[in-house]
Amino acid sequence: MADTQTASARGPADAGPGGPRAAKRKGLSERTLAKVFVSPSILLMALVALFPVIWAVVISLYAYSRRQQVGFGGLDNYITALTDGRFWDAVWFTFVFTVTSVTFEFLIGMGFALIMNQAFRGRGVTRAAILIPWVIPTVIAAQMWFFMFNVTPGFINNLLGLGNFNWLGQPGWPIFAVVFADVWKTAPFVALLLLAGLQTIPGDVYESARVDNASMFQRFFYITLPLLKPAILVALLFRTVDALRVYDLPAVMTGGAFGTESLAILVREFVVRTPNPGYGAALSTLTFILVLGIGMIFVTLLGRDLVIGTEEER
Amino acid sequence: MSGTTPAPVEAVSKRRERAKNGGQGVVERRSQLQIWGKSALLAIILLWCLFPFFWLIMTSFKKGDLALNSPNLFQGPFGFQNYEAVFSLNFHLNLRNSFIVAGTTTVICIIVGSLAGYAIARLPMKRKVLLLSGILAVSLFPPVALVPPLYELWLRLGLLNTWEGLYIPYTAFTLPLTIFILVTFYASIPKDLEEAARVDGATPFQAFYRVILPLAAPGVFAAAIIIFVQAWNEFLLANTFAPRNPEIAQTVPVAIAAFTGAVPFQRPIGTITAACVIVTIPMIIVALVFQKRIVAGLTAGSVKG
Q1: What are the pLDDT digits (tens) for B201-248?
Q2: Are A292 and B140 contacting, i.e. CB atoms less than 8 angstroms apart?
Q3: CB contact under 8 A, A284 and B295
Q4: Of B169, B144, B233, whose CA–CA distance to A270 is shortest?
Q5: How do beta strands A68-72 and A62-65 pair?
Q6: Residue B263: predicted pLDDT
Q7: Looking at residues B47-64, what average pLDDT do you find?
Q8: Do B198 and A27 touch (CB under 8 A)?
Q9: 8 Å CB contact between A176 and A182
Q10: Given CB 3.0 to 4.6 Å as the disulfide criterion, which of A105, A160, A248, B103 pairs with A138?
Q11: A25 backbone dihedrals φ, ψ, rounded to 5°
């Protein structure tokens, strides 16, 4: 910090409102300071997130036997993965889970947000309560709903009068339980994001629509939805990307049985249970491409506002 | 005045009434009814969010086999048996591990992230858009993509079953969110303050450290809670890199998922629900106490970021 930075007076005049004067001062100039401040973050993310992903691509090109590298395999691991029914089953489950859970979370979250935006009494309490499903670990939500759906003690069966219906132990139904638990946990979070968006819509817009005799549905479809679009897209982006990574719920509720093996569970199988680093890395790379690709589609849909949005406030 | 359709008139007068609080019979009663109707809808949300916890607490206090056999929530006898069982399984050590891992993640993220957030929000920088896009891309990374390579790496470096093996990747994953939240908070602090400091002869670093950082404290605190919660709840990496041994590094979610009971192939419902309650109650209190901060942080991190 004791460097004499006066030499860097060539800092462009557009260097913020500090202006050219700033660069002549003692201490680090603003530009240097910016680099110093940003570099630890970049370094950390590059070393622990970017580097492993690239290294996974390298590992995935090698053949392994019992965790020992036995030679270069080229794209063999990828070919094995893409021709394996288990991989496609996991893709299918992850896809169905994502579409159904995000759809219901969005619809219920939107309903909750609209209610909370209208009500006067009890709003504070509800806003606090709505955080609770978000704040608890997904594993706890998974265990909780596992026991509620499970035949013993049979709370849900008792409630619905279903006798000994086996929600979690027969094909077809476990995915319903898993989606239900996810919707329960994250619909309030979606509501929170949408509520924040709703509160940015000025009240007079509705007032003048009422004067123009717009019905409730017209107001919703022609005013609320278009003005809420950025908040909706961001909520959908975060939820979709999160749902594609799903691991906790099916891992705890079913262990991946009965067609509820997600991509994350599948990858982990080849790292821990039947170790094959090459194949596991190939699967993780495919998952990575899939998730990041879908995320990027959303980001381009959102346009630059998502990235620039924060900056415009300057 | 009386020629128009009733709807807008009612709406306008309802507004006025709320403001002046002196209205006439029908309209007032109607809006009162509406207010209560809307509040009743709120009750649905409350039930949705809270009822499962009621079930959880009631179940955790049931004695012996009762939790497994009786769907009736109010059927006793109740007792603390399950809670004693949880701590005999070293659950306090799991709590310790989670506190250390989540706490370290929070400290590192806040230190590293608040610097970057300030630089992005306030300092002149080339390729800012590129940088923000890169950070956004990292926030979209599926953590499972790290599982195979980091497992191999941790195996070689001896970081499996250690606290470090967990909080290092957590930090990298939570940094993007931290930066987005903090950028928003820094951007909302008036710029004049820094300029005043600079005029008084402070270096850019002093302006940040002495003037802006103290003002950003509420935002930093909001970010800290959110980071802590996320690190505390993480399961995939924790379950892969430290799946066993509460004495070493097994965290709370992994323990809750892994409890095994006396009966093979049957999950010990009493122990699990009791452990869930132990973890949930403090988190509910945190959520209630810091409600406003958390909401501000979450919306700053996503709606704007």
Answers
A1: 888 888 888 888 888 888 888 888 889 988 988 998 888 888 888 888
A2: yes
A3: no
A4: B144
A5: antiparallel
A6: 63
A7: 84
A8: no
A9: no
A10: A248
A11: -70, 170
Which of A6, A33, A78 to mutate: most B Cβ within 10 Å? Answer: A33
* Tens of pLDDT, residues A40-64: 888 888 888 888 888 888 888 878 7
How far is the C-alpha of B212 from the C-alpha of B135, rounded, in Å? 23
- Tell me, yes or no, if A234 comes closer than 8 A to chain B by beta carbon: yes
Q: Where are the domains of chain B?
A: 6-60, 84-304
pLDDT for A96: 92
Min distance A253 CA to chain B CA atoms (Å): 9
Cross-chain Cβ contact A284/B280 below 8 Å: no
Q: What is the DSSP letter of A170?
A: S
Does the distance separating the beta carbons of A292 and B141 come in below 8 Å? yes
Distance from C-alpha of A211 to C-alpha of A53, rounded to nearest angstrom: 57
End-to-end, the C-alpha distance of chain A in Å comes to 28
Which CATH number does the domain B84-304 belong to among 3.20.20.140, 2.40.420.20, 3.40.50.720, 1.10.3720.10? 1.10.3720.10
Q: What is the pTM of this model?
A: 0.82
d(CA B185, CA B218): 9
Domains of chain A: 5-60 (no CATH), 86-313 (1.10.3720.10)
Four-point Cα dihedral B44, B49, B52, B58, nearest 10 = -90
Query: What is the average pLDDT across B165-194?
Result: 86
The predicted pLDDT at position A312 comes to 39
CA distances from B60 to A25, A129, A301 (A): 64, 21, 46
Q: Which residues of chain B does A251 touch, with a Cβ-Cβ cutoff of 8 Å?
A: 235, 239, 257
**ipTM, two decimals:** 0.81
* 8-state DSSP, A163: T
